[in-house]
Design a protein that fits this description.
The chain is mainly alpha-helical. The protein contains seven helices and two strands. A two-stranded antiparallel sheet has the order 1-2.
C-alpha cells in the first residue's frame, strides 16, 4: 500500500508540475520568445519540491499519519534550490534592459534549454544537473525502500550541491553580458 501511495504521489505531483508549466510557464525563463526556454533554476526548484513533497506525503501515510521530522539537510537543500532560483530571477530582472538576452531566443528542448547559456551547452550547468539528478534519485530510492524518513544528506554532499549552485549563479551574472558583447562585435564585423 505504501508503495502505491509513493507512486501515486510521484505521478500526481509530476502531472501537476507539467500542467502548470503548460498553462502558466512555471518552469520557463522570463522571456519575450513565443516558445520560452526552460529555466535551469526553476526546474531545479521544481525537482527538489517534487521529490521532497513526494517523500513527505509517503512517509506520513507509511507512519500512520505522523508528520516526519525533517532533518536540517532537507531544509538546507530546499534553501539552496530557493536561493538559486531567487538569485537567477534577480539576475534576469537586472538583465531585462539588455537588448540581446539569450533567454529571449526560442527554446529548443528541455535538456538543451537547461544546460544552455549564452555560448551553448555549458559544463557548469551540466554538472549541476547531474549532481541534482544523482542525489534526487538516491533520495527517492531510499524513501521507497525504507518508508521511515526523508534521508539526511551528509554535509559534504550538501557542500557539493551548494558549490554547484553557486557556480551556476556566479557564471549566470555574465551570460547576457557575453551575448551583448558578441552581438556588438558581430554588428561591427558586418559593417566592414
Amino acid at each position: 500500500m505504501n508503495q502505491l501511495i509513493f507512486f501515486l504521489t510521484l505521478i500526481v505531483l509530476l502531472l501537476l508540475i507539467i500542467y502548470l508549466d503548460r498553462k502558466y510557464k512555471l518552469l520557463r525563463d522570463i522571456s519575450i520568445s513565443d516558445k520560452k526556454p526552460f529555466s535551469y533554476s526553476r526546474v531545479q526548484l521544481a525537482w527538489w519540491t517534487w521529490i521532497i513533497v513526494t517523500a513527505f506525503i509517503t512517509i506520513i501515510f507509511a507512519n500512520g499519519g505522523n508528520i516526519p521530522v525533517l532533518d536540517s539537510s532537507t531544509l538546507i537543500l530546499m534553501g539552496i534550490s530557493a536561493g538559486t532560483t531567487s538569485v537567477a530571477s534577480i539576475i534576469d530582472v537586472s538583465d531585462a534592459a539588455d537588448k540581446t538576452r539569450h533567454q529571449d531566443e526560442r527554446g529548443k528542448h528541455f535538456l538543451y534549454d537547461i544546460i544552455d547559456d549564452s555560448n551553448g551547452a555549458s559544463i557548469h550547468r551540466l554538472q549541476a544537473v547531474l549532481f541534482n539528478i544523482i542525489f534526487g534519485v538516491w533520495m527517492l530510492i531510499t524513501v521507497y525502500n525504507k518508508m521511515e524518513c526523508i534521508p539526511p544528506i551528509n554535509t559534504n554532499c550538501l557542500i557539493l550541491l551548494g558549490i554547484s549552485a553557486g557556480t551556476y549563479s556566479v557564471v549566470k551574472t555574465s551570460e547576457n553580458k557575453q551575448t551583448n558583447s558578441t552581438a556588438g562585435t558581430n554588428t561591427a564585423d558586418s559593417s566592414k
